[in-house]
Amino acid sequence: MTDLSVPPVDAPDSPATARLLAEAAGRIDAPDVVLAMSRAGVRTVHTGGSAEPGPIPRERLHHELGSASKPFAGLLLARLVAQGRVRYEDRAADLLAPGLPVHPAVRRITLRHLLTHTSGLPGLPADFYPQAVPRWSSDPYGNYPADRVVRAFLRARPRHRPGTRWHYSNFAVSVLGHTLAAATGTPWEVLLHQQVLAPLGLEATLLRPGPDGTDATGHRRGGTPLPALDTGGFTAAGALRSSPLDLLTFLEAHVGGATGSPTDPSLATALTEVTRPVLRRGWRHTHTHTLTWFQHPTPYGPVLFHAGATLGQQAFLGFRPGTGLAVAATATRRVHRADTFVATAYGLLTETR
């Protein structure tokens, strides 16, 4: 069912973009789907899905971002570095627990290592799984609080020397969040709001569920509704909830869209810094990464993107630097093997002229 396809301002290509988004949405099977595109600040938003729309438009509901929260954490780190409050090469253990004996490899892990998935840490702490498996499909993270994440880091034995291998790690990015909170003496939620959300005007982006009726409801593959996800101590890696309209605003800040360039020098510097390639990996170094984004080549220039999934929702964020094109997408069904959500959203970003 399709209920909306309305760009905020008229533009010559808006009808064509609306048709493009409508066709793409038809390939995604979910109770709620939002596909949003910005071209040089001109927005086109299409919403649909198999469920009846509620009183609040889908594009204004708070959607769980999962790992698509990580670019927000990366922008926060980049801004703190631009302000001179921390350095990328600061060692996390020294900031979290000065003087505490830790494994030599842990002592060498820097803030940059944590953010770029090169710390040598596993995806999740080893002792996470025994408590999570019995609740794997309902609440795997809620019983693993922040202090336990920190303790797991300080007693870790990294698999590889920091900086030598890339391994995607929710554990590492979560440790980054706790480290920045310790380094600044500011709770993560307050720090993120002060440094990223408020300056960019992201009023519909939250770290916890919003007022009743304002959050999108996730669903299992079979359609069973799910409660809001509790990420426990893994906040920085995946706790954000945001509206698709806020997500477009976030992306437009990276491409200089409707909101223009930030006036604060440290924020402008950070937005530039997070788009700069910092490492390559894989066969013949074909996989490129910035501080926070995956980067792929296209005929229209490089694209930067990040996807995320929770137990019952998915999100995709992406943009093409220098072209003014940005795509934000959300869906309220758990990812599964035959799912087309990420491929469809990625295609909008990489195949649109």
3D structure, described in words:
- There is one protein chain.
- The strands form 2 sheets. This protein has a 9-stranded antiparallel beta sheet with strand order 1-3-2-12-11-10-9-8-7, with helices on both faces.
- The two termini are 27 Å apart.
- With 353 residues, the protein is of the alpha+beta class.
- It contains 13 helices and 12 strands.
Sum up the structure in keywords:
single chain; 353 residues; alpha+beta; 9-stranded antiparallel sheet; 15% strand; globular; disordered N terminus
Short description:
The protein has helices at residues 14-25, 70-82, 92-96, 104-107, 111-115, 128-132, 146-154, 170-184, 188-197, 235-238, 244-255, 265-273, 341-351, and strands at residues 2-5, 33-39, 42-48, 63-64, 205-206, 241-242, 279-281, 287-289, 294-296, 303-309, 314-320, 325-331. The protein has 353 residues and is an alpha+beta fold. The strands form two sheets. Strands 1-3-2-12-11-10-9-8-7 form a nine-stranded antiparallel β-sheet, sandwiched between helices.
Strand content: 15-25%
Number of helices: 13
Strand arrangement across the biggest beta sheet: 1-3-2-12-11-10-9-8-7
The computed structural class is alpha+beta
List low-confidence stretches: 1-13
Shape call:
globular
Q: What is the straight-line distance between the termini?
A: 27 Å
Order of H and E elements:
EHEEEHHHHHHHHEHEHHEEEEEEH
Largest β sheet strand count, sense and barrel closure: 9 strands, antiparallel
Question: Fraction of residues in helices?
Answer: 25-40%
Mean pLDDT: 93
Total DSSP E strands: 12
Rg calculated over all Cα atoms: 20 Å
